[in-house]
Each structure stands twice: as C-alpha cells, then as structure tokens.
Amino acid sequence: MFEIEGHLEVRDHRLFIGGVDAVDLVGEHGSPIFVTNEERIRENYRRYQRAFPDADVYYAVKANGNLTILRILAKEGAGADVFSGGELYMALLAGIPRDRILFNGNSKTERELRYALQTGVRLSVDSLDELKTLASLARESGKVAEIAIRVNPAISPETHPKIATGLSTSKFGIPYTQVIEAYDMAERLEGVKPIGIHCHIGSQITDLTPFVETVKRMMEMVEQIDRLGVKLEFLDLGSGLGIPYRKDEPVPTPEDLADAILPVFKECSDAIGLHPRLILEPGRYITGDTTVLLTKVNLVKEANKRFVGVDAGFNLLIRPAMYDAYHYVLVANKADLPPSGLYTIAGPICESGDILAHDRELPAVERGDVIAVLDAGAYGFSMSSQYNGRPRAAEILVSKGRAYVIREHETVNDLLAKQRVPPHLL
Ligand SMILES: *Cc1c(COP(=O)(O)O)cnc(C)c1O
Prior knowledge:
Layout: E1 8-11, E2 14-17, E3 20-21, H1 22-29, E4 33-37, H2 38-51, E5 56-60, H3 67-76, E6 79-82, H4 85-93, E7 101-103, H5 110-119, E8 122-125, H6 128-140, E9 145-152, E10 174-175, H7 179-188, E11 192-198, H8 209-227, E12 234-236, H9 254-272, E13 277-280, H10 284-287, E14 291-302, E15 306-310, H11 319-323, E16 329-331, E17 341-346, E18 355-362, E19 370-373, E20 394-399, E21 402-407, H12 412-416
Parallel strand pairs: 4-20, 5-6, 5-13, 6-7, 7-8, 8-9, 9-10, 9-11, 11-12, 12-13, 15-17
Antiparallel strand pairs: 1-2, 2-3, 4-14, 14-15, 14-19, 16-19, 17-18, 20-21
Bound molecules: pyridoxal-5'-phosphate.
C-alpha cells in the first residue's frame, strides 16, 4: 500500500497529504500542482543522517532546488551538493553554509569557477584541464581553492543506463587509472589544495553490492594518494540510493546502506590507518516521496487502450518518458475505491511518449477526477519545461495542516519572458 502515516493517508475516500485534503488543494489552487509535505522532508533527512551519524549529509540540489525546500534542509543542518552556478546561488541564498557545499560539475564555465572561488566553497574537479584552469584562476584572485577530485571508479550498478554515472564509459570524473597523476599535479599546482576525493556511481540503485565495491576501490585510492604525501580529509561517496516507486517491492533503506558500507569503510580505514570523514549526497531519498503531483482529468477515451487525459505531462514529470520510470498513481478523490479496470494516464503533450503511467488498475475514472502521481519530489519540477507552450505548475507546501504557495503557477507571460522581436517584425 502507498499510505505513510502522517504523510499520505486516505480519509473518506480522499487522499490527504500531511493532513491536508488533496482534492481541496486542487479546488483552491487549480491544477496541475506539486504538493510537498514539509514534515516528510525533515523525517527523510533525519533518518538518513541518523543512519550515518559520523558522516556529513550534503543534499543534492538538482533533485529539487525550490528555495523553500532548501531552506527547510538548511534549518535541518544539511550541506549541499551543487552542480551549477545557479544551484550554488540558491543553496547560499537558502542559508546553507559555504563550508558545507561542494561544487560539482563535469563542464563548469570559467564564470562558475570564478563564482565558486569568490564564495569560497569547495569544488569537485572533474578533469585535469579543469584542474589547471581552476588553479590559474585562483592564483589570479589570490585564493586557494580546496578541492576534491571526482573519480570515475568504473563500477556498473544495475539501474537505467541514463542514470549510471560511474561506468568506465561515463562522461563523469577522472578515470581511476589517472587519479594518482591528478593528485600529484594538484599537490604541486599553486592555487589548489586537494583535501578530498569524490565519486558518484549513479541513481535509483537498489542493490547494495556496487556501493560496497565503491568504498573498497575508493579507500585503495585514499591509501595511494596518501603515499604521494597528500592528506585527504574527506571521502565523498556521492549517493544513488533508490526509493520504492513500486509500492510492492521493498528497497534498501539508509540503515541497510549504512549496515552494508560502514563496516567495510571502518575495516579499510583501520587497515591503512587513515580515517577520512565520510560525505554522502542523497537527493532522491530526501525529497522523492515528499511530493505528489496532482493533475485533473480532462477526459477518458476508449481506444486501443482506455486513456485518461490529464493536464500534466512530461513537461512536468519527465521520468516516465526519459527513464521508463514507474510512478504509483491513484485517483485522489476515489483513493480507496475498488479497481474497475485498466487505465493509461496520458499527458497533454504532442508526443506519443507522453504517458505518465501505463495500464494501471484504477476505480472508474471520469472527467473532473484528480489523479495523484506519487514520488514526484525528486527530478520532477527540477526537470520540468515549458514544452508545447505550457506554463509550469505551482508548488504548494503543506506544513502542520496549512498550505503555502511556494511557487506560483506560471502564466503565458512567463512563456514570453526574455523574448525579443526584432524591429522589422514588429
Ligand atoms: C545526482 C547526484 C546526486 C544525487 O543522486 P540521488 O540518486 O538523487 O541521491 C549526488 N551526487 C552527485 C554528484 C550527483 O550527480
């Protein structure tokens, strides 16, 4: 079942999110909307941090970079993993301290590197070329950048190929065979100071073995780097822990992940006599299940399949189209009614691939119903677009039984924003 006490509950056949009636929210704020439960963000963060009491938890901002959500995490004490100048700006604005931010990125611009230097955050360097550029920019501005090097550990987790990031063929990181050279260079270059090592093997991973392999491989490198005379303060393992999008299949929890990797980490640390601090960068686990996408039914069409046409598509939630991802769906105003048949939930976008859910058992669906797409809090709004001339949806935060608009609905003015028409066409 999809219910989670205090978070997602069914009362009088209706879905409640954090104690607030989902159907009422659509009545008040319109459709489609993303609805996020503040308490669930806090719970997820605390649970993850509790599983790794001696590690620093850096939230991966790309999963969901809404300022209010970052603010909640800042108040919880989270750090941030940022992947662009924009994400860095938002994280700082939210109040995440600069010494708990790591600026990642496989292709940072010179402007982003300068911005990072100016703010004093640490950087994860993704290539030897970037290392040299960063060092020279740092020298120019009289600064020393504290860095980690992003390593490609050549580990293949079982996940969708588009979200496996540590394969030997991946664009991310420095191949682990060149890592010693990279640290040797970093140690000798003025303007950079290597203090950590970083990797990230992928996302939505539900088998713990690759994480264990990664710890072993990274600790071998920590030892080799130490032999160069470089003392590493931290080992950042990235993230990638999956969440249960399918409600009938259990997936490992942060506790399971901790049980799998912490003993190995300790064993390796003790064996080599080096004890770098662990950093973890969960994104999906922290915000994924906190948010429901509510979308109204425009029509039901009996064709080859029975299609439910809704007002949200891959413009708002691209995961099904991009990764063949599964999201649990239900009818928010008929949440516990018995199924009446198979329905395919189709978005309004002019693409055959714009299907949010295929062949789901649902109660009789009709025009005006509200479909709830669960687990839309990570890589939902943050990957949204205005494709097909569709303004983006509003984001609503529920907190202690109250609802707050944390991002307004866009309008057609937002489609026009920044556009200019040359004089001869006016
Ligand atoms: C995407 C990403 C994360 C977060 O991954 P999740 O699977 O959402 O937890 C962490 N670190 C880096 C470097 C990433 O690119």
